[in-house]
UniProtKB/TrEMBL annotation:
UniProt protein name: Orc1-like AAA ATPase domain-containing protein
Coiled coil start-end: none
Orc1-like AAA ATPase domain boundaries: 9-54
Keyword terms, alphabetized: ATP-binding, Nucleotide-binding
Annotated signal sequence range: none
InterPro entries with a match to the protein in the record: AAA_16, P-loop_NTPase
Amino acid sequence: MPSPGRAWPLVGRAAELDDLEAYLTEATDGPGGAVLLEGEAGVGRTSLVEALQSGAQLLGIRVCGGPDALDELRRPCEDGSARLVVLEDVHRWDDDELTGLAEASADGFPPRTLVVLTLRPVPHRPEVTHVVSRWTRAGARYLELRPLPTAAAVELAEAIVGANLGPSLRGAVSTAGGNPRFVVDVVTAAHDTGALVAVEGGIDAVLPGWRGEVEDVVRSRVAYLGDEVLALLSAASVLGVSFVVVDLAALADRPVADVWRTLRHALAAGVVQARGDRLVFRHDVVRAALYSGIDLDDRRALHARAAWTLREAGAPQAVVATHLERSR
Ligand SMILES: Nc1ncnc2c1ncn2[C@@H]1O[C@H](COP(=O)(O)OP(=O)(O)OP(=O)(O)O)[C@@H](O)[C@H]1O
Ligand SMILES: [Mg+2]
């Protein structure tokens, strides 16, 4: 059943929904319980808890969410009926609210109640870490929501367009790295720019120029990372989908330790991941968006500097030549 605001079904979350429903049954049967649901921006936390809320309502469990949910949690439930209390996006709560939330775990969980807290890993705030520690000590479970597998991301795109994807659109969807919000952004941009056409066996995005629209949207999606992280990732985008951290430090003219300190936030946010001494952009669409967002003169200068840096580091001539070409 589509949740409000979503015209397509929930895909690829059967296992996570099963886990949450099992916690709900266990908690509402008696002792109460809590779950910390964490995942990168746009990974689908809200969609998943909405599905849980729909299921709970069908079971006659009282569902509380929104701004009053914390008050509801503090109020003893007079009639002793089962409750699901959803506290969304605690990374955005103000300090006083977070203090109240930390305290709310002091006496253990309210009986016959499952509390679900959702949060993004970034921005990192000590007040949020404090809440997570307090709730963890009280016995809250932790559920990390990971990006969708490729097949589920394609299934999502197909559910939105209502047809099989042609090769070009499928390729564009794969740049979303399994993040459902980016999948929706890719398909919506293709649709809104009129790039979608019927092809044999499905729908494809064959008209040129629509990717710029996706990149604009994706740049606004990652703005929450802040200027310092974005500036460094933009420089990294010149080096490619994967890059060596010392090369990035040389390119940005900053000490390696300093660069790691900034990259920590990008790692926590799930924008890049570590692969040995390299880092890899987890969603190619983010790299492309940052790259196309660099002013043309700056981009040329970065390519010139990358050519020099990589030559010094002993990179193959062909790689150096590509950067030189793009520096003109
Ligand atoms: N499993 C899914 N199946 C279908 N659509 C999904 C799924 N997960 C997310 N979406 C869609 O992707 C978009 C982002 O999802 P959602 O808002 O649930 O993510 P979120 O993690 O709550 O984001 P935020 O970090 O902004 O709170 C929405 O358009 C939603 O409908
Ligand atoms: Mg959300």
